[in-house]
Every structure is written in structure tokens, then in C-alpha cells.
């Protein structure tokens, strides 16, 4: 036989008030509704439980034996099940796993961790870079907390997304190569050897598709799996590299590297944070998302520098 735990509230509330009308009011019930529930409880227990006296409704011995256990059970349900435990960043000991490209690690992580460690000094972070197919599975399994970047493949209803900022590209060139002004000609762009990162980033597909539409070819002379190796190659060799503008900004004052604009206005794309719907209400996950949104979702961090190079930018590619 099943038992409705809500009937225990009838027992404990009536014991507290010793009046059917006041107990019903406390629970937001009508008096007839309360009386009906009390009758159900009496039938289930096989005892009157409360008897009307000159001092109000008084519990029977059976009810008195039940009241303490019922009170403890209801408090346990209230505290352990219905109430979420308070989220306390200052005592949080956890390791977040945020899927980022190596270029995004340099752009995001120092700002993020300086801010987080001010309030949560025991938080640590891993930054794996996964291909889109594996990333979707890892988000669902909880193996990855967030994915930050341009991921048009993460488009299932089970995955949620928040736009952070619009991004674009710039070129890095060896500082010893002569150049009139800060813009490459189309001929120079095609003739200089390019160093290219062959990384699993969807934003690179945006750039490659743009070059194909414009019928612009690159003479690729070095391929590397890491974006962060490109500035070092440019500094030591007479090669050209196209990188996200956030990385270009880091090296704009480098003595052996020059940031230049290509002979076209490059495409733009939206960088977003992605998470699985399972963790949307999770305080731990939500807290990290809020930090990313506050740091990088306001004011378009790299947009002013992009406009210095290009003026008005085209609308971002649809994800």
C-alpha cells in the first residue's frame, strides 16, 4: 500500500495549531479539504489521531508516537531534497574542464583565473581541445563543463549557447620584411610563404571558405597543429600567419613581429559558450558561465582594435 507523505504535514501542522481551521490556513488549504485529508490519514493509520477536547484537538498516544518521526522526516525532505545547498565559492574545491583552443587559452584563461581566484582560491582548470564530434559527447557526459569558441556543429536542442563576442582575423608578418604602410597587397599576400595552424577549429573553416570565395590562394610553407607556435615562427622566419585578432593584439608591440591587415576585410564569427541542458541549473556550472559572460560578453573586447584595422566589419557568419 502506498502512502502519501503530504499527509504527514496534516499530522504535524494540526499538532502545532490544535485547530483544524488554523492548520488548514497554515497549509493554504480549505477547511473541508484539510478535514478530508485528515480522514484519509486516520483510515490509513487506523487511529483517530486527534480528538476534539475543551483545549482543542489533542493527539492520541499513536499520534504522539508518530509526530517526532514525521517532523524529522519532513525536515530531512525539506533540507536534503527540496532545498538546494548554498553555493559557496570561497570554499569551492573543484577542477573545471573548459574546451578551448590554445589561442583561446592565452586570450581567456589569465583574465578568468585572476578573477576567479579572488573569490575561489581552490578552483583549478583544465583546457582540453576536442574535435566537435567528441566535444558534443563530452558535454553531455559532464566530462566537459563548457566549450568556448565558434562551434556551429553544437546545434542540438540538448545543448545551450550564449553569445560572448564577435571575432575576426589579422596577419602577423616578420618585422624585418619591408612594407609600405600596414596593409599587405594582394600580390604580397599570395607570394609570401604562409605558416598555417592545422587545428580542429571551426573558425579556420570560416577563413578558408572566405578565401575560396574570393579566389585568393595562400602559399603554405609551414603547417603546425598549434596556433601559439605561429608568432614564434613569424618572429624567426620570413613567413606570414593569419591568426585570430585576439592573438594578434598580444604581439602588436613585439620587436620582431608586425601586425598588418590583409588586402581585404576578413570575415567575422561569433564566439559563444556552450553547455549541456543537464547542467543549466547547476550552481557550479552557472557560476563559471557567469564569469565568462561578465568578462567577455560585454563591450566586445577586441572589436575596437579590429575597427582600427578595418573600419566597419561585415556581419558575422551564421553558426
Q: Which features does this protein show?
A:
alpha/beta, rod-shaped, 12 strands, Arc Repressor Mutant, subunit A, 319 residues, D-Maltodextrin-Binding Protein, domain 2, three-stranded antiparallel β-sheet, 20% strand, five-stranded mixed β-sheet
Structural class: alpha/beta
Give me the CATH superfamily of the largest domain. Answer: Periplasmic binding protein-like II
CATH architecture of the largest domain: 3-Layer(aba) Sandwich
N-end to C-end Cα span: 54 Å
Mean pLDDT across every amino acid position: 89
> How many β strands by DSSP?
12
- What percent of residues adopt helix (DSSP H or I)? 40-55%
How many domains? 3
Short description:
This protein is α/β, with parallel strands linked by helices.
Question: How would you portray this structure in words?
Answer:
The protein is α/β, with parallel strands linked by helices and 319 residues long. Helix content is 43%, strand content 20%. It folds into three domains: 6-82, Arc Repressor Mutant, subunit A (Orthogonal Bundle); 89-166 and 269-310, 3-Layer(aba) Sandwich (D-Maltodextrin-Binding Protein, domain 2), CATH 3.40.190; 169-260, D-Maltodextrin-Binding Protein, domain 2 (3-Layer(aba) Sandwich). It has helices at 6-17, 20-26, 31-45, 61-82, 102-119, 132-141, 186-191, 202-214, 230-236, 245-250, 283-296, 303-310; strands at 50-53, 56-59, 94-99, 123-126, 146-149, 159-167, 169-174, 193-197, 219-224, 240-244, 257-260, 269-276. It has a five-stranded mixed beta sheet. α1 crosses α3, α1 crosses α4 and α2 (20-26) crosses α3 (31-45). It is rod-shaped and about 105 Å long. The mean pLDDT is 89.
Amino acid at each position: 500500500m502506498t502512502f502519501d507523505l503530504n499527509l504527514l504535514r496534516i499530522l504535524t501542522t494540526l499538532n502545532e495549531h490544535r485547530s483544524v481551521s488554523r492548520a488548514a490556513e497554515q497549509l493554504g488549504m480549505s477547511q473541508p479539504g484539510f478535514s478530508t485529508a485528515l480522514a484519509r490519514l486516520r483510515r490509513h493509520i487506523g487511529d483517530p489521531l486527534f480528538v476534539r477536547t475543551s483545549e482543542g484537538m489533542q493527539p492520541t498516544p499513536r499520534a504522539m508516537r508518530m509526530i517526532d518521526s514525521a517532523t524529522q522526516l519532513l525536515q530531512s525532505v525539506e533540507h536534503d531534497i527540496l532545498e538546494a545547498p548554498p553555493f559557496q565559492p570561497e570554499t569551492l574545491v573543484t577542477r573545471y574542464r573548459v574546451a578551448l583552443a590554445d589561442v583561446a587559452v592565452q586570450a581567456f584563461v589569465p583574465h578568468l583565473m585572476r578573477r576567479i581566484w579572488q573569490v575561489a582560491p581552490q578552483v583549478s582548470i583544465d583546457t582540453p581541445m576536442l574535435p566537435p564530434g567528441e566535444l558534443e559527447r563530452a558535454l553531455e557526459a559532464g566530462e566537459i563543463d563548457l566549450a568556448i569558441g565558434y562551434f556551429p556543429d553544437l546545434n542540438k536542442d540538448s545543448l545551450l549557447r550564449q553569445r560572448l563576442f564577435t571575432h575576426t582575423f589579422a596577419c602577423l608578418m616578420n618585422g624585418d620584411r619591408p612594407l609600405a604602410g600596414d596593409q599587405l597587397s594582394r600580390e604580397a599576400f599570395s607570394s609570401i610563404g604562409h605558416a598555417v595552424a592545422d587545428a580542429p577549429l571551426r573558425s579556420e573553416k570560416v577563413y578558408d571558405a572566405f578565401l575560396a570565395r574570393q579566389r585568393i590562394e595562400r602559399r603554405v610553407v609551414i603547417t603546425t597543429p598549434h596556433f601559439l607556435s605561429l608568432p614564434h615562427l613569424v618572429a624567426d622566419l620570413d613567413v606570414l600567419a593569419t591568426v585570430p585578432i585576439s592573438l594578434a593584439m598580444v604581439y602588436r608591440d613585439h620587436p620582431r613581429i608586425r601586425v598588418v591587415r590583409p588586402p581585404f576585410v576578413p570575415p567575422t564569427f561569433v564566439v559563444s559558450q556552450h553547455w549541456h541542458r543537464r547542467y543549466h541549473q547547476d550552481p557550479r556550472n552557472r557560476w563559471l558561465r557567469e564569469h565568462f559572460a561578465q568578462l567577455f560578453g560585454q563591450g566586445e573586447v577586441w572589436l575596437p582594435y579590429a575597427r582600427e584595422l578595418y573600419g566597419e566589419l561585415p556581419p558575422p557568419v551564421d553558426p
